[in-house]
Amino acid sequence: MKVLVVGGGGREHALCWRLARSPQLTRLYCAPGNPGTAGCATNVALAADDLTGLADFAAREAIDLTVVGPEVPLCEGLQAVFAARGLLVFGPSPAGARLEGSKVFAKQIMAQCGLRTAPFAVCERLAEATAYIGAHPGARVVKADGLAAGKGVVVAADAAQACRAARDFLEGEVLGPAGRRIVIEERLRGEEVSVLALCDGERVLTLPSCQDHKAVLDGDEGPNTGGMGAYSPAPVLGPELQRRVEEEILLPVVRGLAAQGTPYRGVLYAGLMIVAGEPYVLEFNCRFGDPETQPLMLRCSADLLPYLYGAARGELPRQPLQWDDRAALCVVLTAAGYPGPYRKGQPITGLEQAEALADVAVFHGGTAHDADGRLVTAGGRVLGVTALGEDVAAAQQRAYAAVRAIAWEGLHYRRDIGHRAVGRR
Ligand code: AMP
Ligand code: GLY
Question: Ligand 2: which of 231, 283, 285 to mutate, judged by most atoms within 8 Å of the beta carbon?
Answer without folding.
Answer: 285
